[in-house]
Amino acid sequence: TPEAGKKYLSFAGCLQFPFSTGTIHITSTDATVQPAIDPGYFTDDFDLDVLVSTVKFIRKVARTGGFQEMLGSEVDPGTDIQSDSDILEYIKNFGNSEFHTVGSAAMLPREKGGVVSPELKVYGTDNIRVVDLSILPLQISAHPMSTLYGV
């Protein structure tokens, strides 16, 4: 539990370009019914390999130079989690998203699985356009708000 007046420092490792992909499907003709969403987290082993390496790298940084003298003991995942398999299990159980999802209505050619054209028109319709982060076919390595403003 944080103590009042005490300073803390956290390192975080984030997967900016996941290879894992999810799915989203309409479940009803009723527009008020939520679609079936599976984010597909960690379905590509490469993502897990990158995250295990990230935890190990963060630990290396924390033991380097001035950090080593400044930092106390590791809290999360904790010093008991050391082997690659233990780190992997930790990530699977406690890893999470930054919730900057993209691509559910990707702007790509229709034959490549795209949903909207470069003019943001939904394929197969006359007057429906999509103007949100769902049109981005790939994740970006930044907060997506400025990209959305550009769209």
TrEMBL record:
Which residues belong to any copy of the Glucose-methanol-choline oxidoreductase C-terminal domain?
A: 18-150
- Superkingdom of the organism of origin: Eukaryota
Coiled-coil segments: none
Ordered alphabetically, the record's keywords are: FAD, Flavoprotein, Glycoprotein, Oxidoreductase, Signal
Its required cofactor(s), as named, are: FAD
Q: Pfam families attached here? A: GMC_oxred_C
State the InterPro entries in the record.
FAD/NAD-bd_sf (IPR036188), GMC_OxRdtase (IPR012132), GMC_OxRtase_C (IPR007867)
Q: Which GO terms describe its molecular function?
A: flavin adenine dinucleotide binding; oxidoreductase activity, acting on CH-OH group of donors
Q: Which SUPFAM superfamilies match?
A: FAD-linked reductases, C-terminal domain, FAD/NAD(P)-binding domain
PANTHER family reported in the protein's UniProt record? GLUCOSE-METHANOL-CHOLINE GMC OXIDOREDUCTASE, GLUCOSE-METHANOL-CHOLINE OXIDOREDUCTASE N-TERMINAL DOMAIN-CONTAINING PROTEIN
Tell me which family the UniProt entry assigns to this protein. Belongs to the GMC oxidoreductase family.
Protein name as it appears in the record: Glucose-methanol-choline oxidoreductase
Species: Rhodocollybia butyracea
> What are the leading ranks of the lineage?
Eukaryota, Fungi, Dikarya, Basidiomycota, Agaricomycotina
